[in-house]
Specification:
Number of strands of chain A: 0
Structural class of chain A: mainly alpha
Oligomer: heterodimer
Strand order of the largest sheet of chain B: 2-1-7-6
Radius of gyration of chain B: 16 Å
Largest interface: A-B, 34 and 39 residues
Number of helices of chain A: 16
Strand content of chain A: under 5%
Shape of chain A: globular
Radius of gyration of chain A: 20 Å
Order of helices and strands of chain B: HEEEEHEEEHH
Structural class of chain B: alpha+beta
Number of helices of chain B: 4
Largest sheet of chain B: 4 strands, mixed
Helix content of chain B: 10-25%
Shape of chain B: globular
Chain lengths: ~400, ~120
């Protein structure tokens, strides 16, 4: 019974922790621009993150190998170093975008100045990272992020055309500007599969000291937690499609997302939406700061992990501090956090293959994995998503240019 | 040892773990002997920024940016090879993990460093 309870708590945290600023921005913008037509892109992306999170969680639990251990071991120093630089650039951009998002959510809640709230956001995040044990961080931000479920209620209240919604789950080439459609397709899939999630998830398996007995928990977290997390993405896109598209509202502000909950549900909807966004995006900021520290520590063989305590993994601790300071310096220039978000997602897509290839190789290696190596299903999905990721990695930057960053 | 180990995949670039379970560097390079005689064998694991020089363009580039010398761990000090390479002695005895030790002195000054 205790075990079932523990699994349920883990799943809840995974749902609340799934959505980040990239998901919010791309889902709301896609809904406002193309209605429900791109729901299938979210399904595609969620399938990818489930496949690779399950795989890297299993590798972590069985062989204590985290993603950047695998990158270094399988790609060697040279290619591994390129993967590290690419991964860290993307982690830093993502962190900057999330911190900007935290400050915007705080601004919408309080009315105070954006720059002052940036400073506050960074200080609070640093304190949380410094003071709280790993499990607390995971749970607190995951649970409070569940306030985003208000968008599921909003989606129903806005009475979308459910036939059109169902149609959106069928892959299509879409109507409207083809380049913009393709740009959103890459952005939605990329936001769901953003690399810091696997860096963080695999290291988290080792932080939580998972072993082979925890593989059920790993599978439940990945499959159920991320599927239900994907539900929040659907709700964002459906609400935006029902409310914003008919009125021709362009969703270029984070406040637009909160508005989508306010229209059908009033003040309570607005506040729940902003609180959900605040915690989901703060949680993602923490995950991406840690992801950056895990990656560099694993590549160079430093001691790492929150479970070693701050002074027990000194360069790891220093690494997340440096990440936060650099990200702060990026957003405090006044650069638009929504633009940073879109760029971070598109560049993430380019970094994905070098992340996924080593995971797939290690998960198939019986010297590491013994009887827990990939089965047929994991390999079919793994290879399918590797191909998907390679295609969208090649297409991402040209589409960024051709679609004029989704502006057409 | 009776089990067969692929040195390229199973040792090179793997985590070094000392006798107390501390992560203390990576197997950055391997020192071989007897290559000319046709009987190559590994005599030591090399670790530290200076060992990256032997690892191609990006290794030389990284080694030119980061200071730090090369530490040689004789193969006799290897206790066991799993996903990491487990060593028989502590990091301190083997002169490993000194970068972490340097930064620790600074981190320890902050309140709550043991949390």
């Amino acid at each position: 019974m205790k075990n079932v309870f523990g699994i349920a708590l883990g799943i809840l945290a995974a749902i609340g922790g799934f959505v980040d600023i990239g998901d919010i921005v791309f889902n709301v913008a896609a809904g406002a621009t193309f209605g429900y037509q791109l729901l299938w892109a979210v399904v595609l992306g969620v399938g990818g993150i489930i496949t690779y999170a399950e795989m890297c969680g299993r590798v972590g639990a069985v062989s204590k190998t985290a993603v950047f251990d695998a990158v270094r071991e399988r790609l060697g120093f040279g290619v591994g170093f390129v993967a590290l630089l690419a991964g860290e650039l993307v982690n830093l951009m993502t962190l900057a975008a999330e911190i900007g998002g935290v400050a915007i959510a705080l601004q919408l809640l309080s009315g105070l100045s954006y720059r002052a709230l940036l400073v506050l956001a960074v200080l609070v995040l640093a304190l949380v990272l410094w003071l709280m044990p790993f499990q607390w961080i995971e749970r607190i931000f995951g649970y409070c992020g569940l306030a985003l479920l208000v968008f599921v209620v909003a989606a129903f209240k806005l009475h979308p055309d459910w036939g059109a919604v169902a149609h959106g789950f069928v892959p299509s080439t879409g109507s409207g500007n083809g380049w913009v459609y393709a740009y959103f397709l890459v952005g939605l899939a990329g936001a769901a599969m953003i690399p810091y999630e696997v860096y963080f998830y695999s290291s988290g398996a080792i932080e939580e000291q998972w072993g082979p007995k925890d593989l059920g928990l790993n599978r439940a977290n990945a499959v159920i937690g991320y599927s239900l997390g994907g539900l929040l993405s659907f709700a964002l896109m459906i609400s935006a499609g029902a409310l914003l598209l008919p009125q021709g509202i362009n969703a270029e502000l984070l406040g637009t997302a909160a508005l989508v909950a306010e229209a059908p549900l009033g003040q309570a909807g607005l506040i729940l939406a902003l609180v959900g966004i605040l915690f989901a995006v703060s949680g993602a900021a923490i995950d991406s700061a840690f992801a950056g520290a895990y990656s560099v520590a694993q590549f160079f063989g430093w001691e790492w992990g929150k479970y070693r305590h701050n002074a027990g993994a000194p360069r790891f601790t220093l690494a997340w501090m440096v990440m936060i300071v650099l990200a702060f310096l990026i957003v405090v220039t006044g650069v638009d956090p929504i633009m940073v978000t879109e760029l971070s997602v598109i560049f993430s897509v380019v970094a994905l293959p070098l992340t996924y290839i080593p995971i797939l190789l290690v998960a198939n290696d019986r010297a590491y994995m013994g009887n827990y190596a990939n089965g047929v299903v994991a390999n079919i999905l793994g290879v399918f998503y590797l191909v998907v990721v390679l295609v969208i990695a090649v297409a991402a930057i040209p589409l960024l240019v051709l679609s004029n960053m989704g502006q057409g | 040892m009776s089990t067969e180990i692929d040195l390229g995949l199973g040792v090179l670039d793997h985590q070094l773990i000392d006798s107390e379970g501390r992560r203390c560097g990576n197997a950055d390079d391997l020192e071989l002997e007897g290559v000319r005689e046709g009987e190559p064998r590994v005599v030591a694991i090399l670790t530290g920024p200076a060992a990256w020089r032997g690892r191609g363009f990006f290794g030389r580039l990284a080694a030119s940016v980061v200071r730090g010398d090369l530490v040689r761990i004789p193969w006799e000090e290897v206790a066991e090879i799993e996903s990491g390479v487990h060593l028989r002695k502590t990091a301190r005895e083997l002169r490993l993990g000194r970068g972490d030790d340097r930064v620790r002195r600074w981190i320890e000054k902050l309140p709550g460093s043991s949390l």
